[in-house]
Amino acid sequence: MVVYAGQGDPRRSIELLWRASAAPEQRPGRKPGLSVDLIVDAAVEVADEQGMAFSMRAVGERLGRTAMALYTYVPGKNELVDLMYDRAMAELPTTYDLGDGWRAAVAAWAQDLWECYARHPWVLQVSQARPVLGPHEFASIEALAAILVTTGLPGRQLRGITGALTYFVRGAAQTVAEARAAGGETGEGDEEWWYARSAVLTEIEPDLAKKFPMLHVLESDRDPVDPSLPYLENDALENFRGGLKVLLDGVEGAVAKP
Question: What pTM value is reported for the model?
Fold first, then answer.
C-alpha cells in the first residue's frame, strides 16, 4: 500500500503542518478538549498498531470522541497522514556532534533514521515521490546536510550523497518492516517458511551451489548472528551496516580525491 502525501487542500495542509493558522483551540472564548497535536499523537499510536489502513473512527475512539469531532481540527485522513509523517520525523535529532568527524555523525544519523522507521513502519508507505513539506521533514535533511557540508564537497555531489543515504536507509528499513509484518499477514513465521522451502529446494535441486557458485561467495564470511532476531532481520541488519560502510567509504574517497 502506497500513500501519496499532499492530497488535501494545499493551503490548509501547509498551514496545519507549520501551525500557521489559528487552530480552534486558540480562538478566544473557546476551550475544546481536543487539539491538532492530540489528534496527531493518537493517530500515530493507532497507525503503529494497525498500520496505514487505520480509520478516522479508530483515532476518534482512541480519544474518546467520534470521527466527526476530529474534522473541526483536521479536514480528513489525507491531511492527517501528512501531519503524522512529520510528527514521526520530529523524533529525529536536528544536530549531531562532529567531535569524531563527519563519518561518525552520518552513521549516527543513519542509525537514528533506521530506528525511527522501525518504531513507525507505516511511515515507509508514504511515498517519497511527493514530499510532505513539513518542518520536521526539512529538519531531518537539514541535519544530514549540516554534517556533509563539513566534508568540503560541492553541492552537486552532496545532493547525490544525501539522496543515496536517504534511499539506502529507507530501503534497508523496508525489508525489516516487511519481514516483521510477514508472519501476521501470511500466518507463517520466518523460520517455518525457510525450513519448508529450503528442504524442498535442496531435494529438487541438490546441485544448487554448483549452479550458482557466486551466491556462495555472498553467503561466506558473515557477521555473527544475533540469536534474539529472526533470520531476515539479522540479514537486513548486516546488509544495512555493510552497505552503509561502503557508501561512507565512497564519500571518503570523493573527499580525498584532488
Answer: 0.90
